[in-house]
Amino acid sequence: MEQEAGEALERFLRIAAREVERVCADADRGAIAKAARLIREAEARGGRVHVTGVGKPEHIARYAAALLASTGTPATFLHATESVHGSVGQLRPADVVIAISNSGETRELLACVEVVRSFGAPLVAVTGHSDSALARAAEVVLEARVSEEGGPLELAPRASTLVELVVLAALSVELQASRGFSREDYNRRHPKGALGKRSAG
Description:
Elements: H1 2-26, H2 29-44, E1 49-53, H3 56-70, E2 75-77, H4 80-83, E3 96-101, H5 107-118, E4 123-127, H6 133-137, E5 140-143, H7 159-178, H8 183-189, H9 193-200
Parallel strand pairs: 1-2, 1-3, 3-4, 4-5
């Protein structure tokens, strides 16, 4: 069992490194720039970003919203399943929604997307399947495709969540750089802790 565990670990690390390297090499720079432009245009109209996902992508969505907000892009988490029970009321037509789903076919997320579109909010899809229902509903598709997850059963999302994080981090970098976000800007949003000390220096 110990040998099997060690082999499984080595296999996962190889797959994770390969998938992250591939998404960094193949990332659609034009699509990332287009998504950033869509968000900046929404901000100019008084809009904000809402990030959503179901299951493991929900945790990715919460992180992405926090990362965007801390680096100059007003963003909040939108609970996909609650959205069809009133929470979509946090949206305004000028807002942008980023929806995350590896399959692009998650039923609860697609229900959220349907109501989001009824509010007139443009959609950015982060998905591993560019031909999915989620991708077809979006103005911009940021592909986060993997060939393997890397786990013993190839079921739990492992490599796919890493790749989603990379794609969303890349979008945050594009947005931060495009707005000339400074060390002082960062410190105003993050005045405490080790990062607060570093940004103040």
